[in-house]
Write a structure and sequence with these properties.
The protein has 14 helices and 11 strands. The protein is α/β, with parallel strands linked by helices and 328 residues long. Residues 304, 306-307, 309, 316-317, 319-320 line the site of one zinc ion.
Length: 328
Amino acid sequence: MVLMVKYNIFLKKGKCSRCRNSIVIQRKYSGEELCPKCFEDNIEKIIFKTISKYKMLKGNDKIIVAVSGGKDSLSLLYNLNEIQKKRFQSEPVIALTIDEGIVDYREKAIEKAKEFCNELKIEHKIVSFKEKIGYTLDEIINKKRDLPDYKYTCNYCATIRRRLLNDVAKELGGTVLAMGHNLTDMAETYLMNILYKRLHLIANQYPFKKESPKIKEFFIKKITPLMRIPEEEIFLYANIKEIQYYPSHCLYREKDPIIRKRVLDFIQECKQFSPEIEFNLLSGFLELSTVLYNQLEKGGYHSCQSCGYPCGDAQLCLYCQFLKEFNQ
Ligand code: SF4
Ligand SMILES: [Zn+2]
Ligand SMILES: [Zn+2]
């Protein structure tokens, strides 16, 4: 389905707090009311300020943008491409897409990503699970679904995609990997990690760490410039800019009875009564990850016996554990 929504349908009653035109948004968490143009400018300013405030980029960084073809990643790609061209002397951004091999979903999203990159003349690298690990995600799930050690699809998918994004971004000469996580994603992930007491993950996601040369050898720096923008605002922004993104969700997300979806519903419900709740979760994450990172870092880390990547206490990292299971 091609998405082509003019922003007129988003217009609401009221006058823009800045220019008195008709508005498209009333931000309950800040009280602002903005017209399409002021909203668009404001979103771009938030992205730029987030990058500056959290020192996400240096002038000579080579930026690789993880692109799925959805609204978040294409909005991010558009902004980073503009920022790189206007403000930095560095090499142009590169878009990187991982094709997990999900029939009826990923190929359509990839088409959107390809079209967008062509339009903006951005180099686009596509790498598939099949070529890198020998199986598509659909093949993995068909093989594992009825086995006792089956994990939810998203666990396999996210672990493998994370590793491939990291490795290919490094192969492309990237110094920074930009991810399209918005505020809602950040809040949801943080709450999930709290519920499952994944303190090491919260610590690992600490965004301002000064990593040792050993860690840098394996991992590219990740940045999340959309982390202060709620999901619905990225949706509005992408539509106002008429970005042609792929609007559907992955079918596995609906099929698996994952807690994540319930957590998201819970956050949305809380937002009705406490509009700033996602911002609280983000700042809670930033503060707690600082404390945990400084605390847990002292314990050092083990190296995976197969790939050498830093990992927890297990002999194999999760990525290598999964590869071993798939090949059994
Ligand atoms: S919803 Fe789950 S299975 Fe689908 S692309 Fe995302 S992580 Fe992968
Ligand atoms: Zn305005
Ligand atoms: Zn490993």
